Amino acid sequence: MRAIRVEETGKPGDWNKLVVAEVPRPEPAEGEVLVQVEAFSVNRADLLQRRGLYPPPPGASPILGLDCAGYVVELGAGVSRWHVGDRVFAVVAGGGYGRYVVIPEDHLIPIPENLSFTEAAAAAEVFLVAFLNLFLEAGLQKGETLLLHGGGSGVGTAAVQLARESGACVIVTAATAEKIERCLQLGAWAGINYKTEDFARRVRELTDGRGVDVVLDWIGAPYLGKHLDILKPGGRLVIIGLMGGHTGEITLAPLLTKRLKIIGSVLRSRSREEKAELVRRFRSQVLPLLASGSVKPVVDSVFNAEEVETAHQRMQEGGHFGKIVLTWSD
Ligand SMILES: NC(=O)c1ccc[n+]([C@@H]2O[C@H](COP(=O)([O-])OP(=O)(O)OC[C@H]3O[C@@H](n4cnc5c(N)ncnc54)[C@H](OP(=O)(O)O)[C@@H]3O)[C@@H](O)[C@H]2O)c1
Questions:
Q1: Ligand 1 centre from 1 Cα, in Å?
Q2: What are the residues whose beta carbons fall under 8 Å from the beta carbon of 95, sequence distance 6 or more?
Q3: Domain Enoyl reductase (ER) spans what residues (predicted)?
Q4: 3-class secondary structure, 177
Q5: At 254, is the pLDDT very low, low, confident or very high (cuts 50, 70, 90)?
Q6: Is the CB of residue 179 below 6 angstroms from any atom belonging to ligand 1?
Q7: pLDDT band at residue 193, thresholds of 50, 70 and 90?
Q8: 65 C-alpha to center of ligand 1: Å?
Q9: Ligand 1 pocket check: which of 227, 242, 243 to mutate, most ligand atoms within 8 Å of Cβ?
Q10: Which of 40, 41, 43 has most ligand 1 atoms within 8 Å of its beta carbon, as the pocket-test mutant?
Q11: Backbone angles phi, psi at 113, to 5 degrees
């Protein structure tokens, strides 16, 4: 089968080349399904993995790719809930950049009729991650206020919509006025340009000094102190990435006096059972919103699989709003 392969130079950190190559097609084991991938998306972690900085968890495919959308083409032994020809999407721990991928049957999600493969691929990773971290990890409630960095990112565009649907008030940060405007259209209440404004001071102004209940963060170290500062008593900070730095120093007092929670969360390395439980809850709570069009995957751009270098470059340059999707053609 065709897959996008990383041609490693051997030096960690190098922008290894990506090439479409012939590789062995995987076979579904018991309880697994073989999916013919029609569309898959670029996730920020792919840029790290191609540089040797984010290896796949043990047992996962070494091929890049954390999500996909396609057709069921073969069933492993004992699979009863899917049929050949079903349209499905899923997150995977690796292998989404291959034309075929094997996926445990309880990780698959049916694609609602109103969504194309491109849209389903744009939804898979980011809607699951937003749902997991906003609601299951942070316990975001109706009437609470959320600070969401990078509202125009893949995860951000999903999180704004899910938080809005839950009745939470969303403040986003973004690098440009245009991205802020588009986040407001998705349902954010306010936007802060993190390049030109001190986001913590602006959050205090916007909330009359009260602060926020939940922060969804992937910047990490440089924002840690400010986040503890602007969280209300009982507030929750969920860190899902470390784009700005890994090591920070904080004053611990607010953690105690305000009874704050700092939660670290990764989806990719969770066990098969944990992912199955997440998918079960996603299917009952989020899939109906996607199926009714109440929330929509935001597609920034679509490339052919052969154009993967251009797709990665677009994410690296940061001009995108929503998801960058790749598609296979015969
Ligand atoms: N833990 C997990 O399970 C998990 C799963 C999926 C994703 N993630 C993480 O979630 C993050 C988003 O992923 P993605 O695929 O959606 O990436 P993406 O589309 O490339 O988004 C990155 C975003 O970060 C924003 N940003 C960069 N520097 C910033 C700063 N200093 N202050 C505020 N915002 C800043 C950018 O905003 P502008 O474009 O406006 O500059 C951009 O929107 C990544 O760090 C990724 O690794 C974690």
A1: 31
A2: 26, 60, 61, 63, 65, 68, 101, 102
A3: 13-326
A4: helix
A5: very high
A6: yes
A7: very high
A8: 17
A9: 243
A10: 43
A11: -60, -30
Q: Mark 137-152 as b/e (b = at least 16 C-beta within 10 Å).
A: bbebeeebbbbbbbbb
State the amino acid at position 289 in one-letter form: L
Token readout for 178 is: 């245009």
Q: Which domains does the chain have, with CATH numbers?
A: 2-111+298-327 (3.90.180.10), 126-264 (3.40.50.720)
pLDDT at 12 over 90: no
Q: What are phi and psi for residue 214, nearest 5 degrees? A: -135, 140
Q: How far is the CA of 43 from the centre of ligand 1 (A)?
A: 9
- Mean predicted confidence (pLDDT) in 223-239: 98
Quick: pLDDT tens for 30-69: 999 999 999 999 999 999 999 999 999 999 999 999 999 9
Hey, is 21 helix, strand or coil?
strand
Q: Is the pLDDT of residue 290 over 90?
A: yes
Residue 194 near ligand 1, beta carbon < 6 Å: yes
How far is ligand 1, taken at its centre, from the CA of residue 6, in Å? 23
**Ligand 1 contacts CB of residue 305 (under 6 A):** no
CB-ligand 1 contact for 149 (6 Å cutoff):
yes
For ligand 1, whether the C-beta of 175 sits within 6 Å is yes
pLDDT of residue 17: 94
Six-digit token string for 303 = 């490339």
Name which residue sits closest to atom 22 of ligand 1, judged by CA: 153
Whether 306 has a pLDDT exceeding 90, the answer reads yes
On the question of pLDDT at 11 being above 90, the answer is no
Rg from Cα positions in the chain: 20
Task: Look at the alpha carbons of 225, 231, 237, 239 in this order and tell me if their dihedral is positive or negative.
Answer: negative
Letter for the amino acid at 70? Answer: G
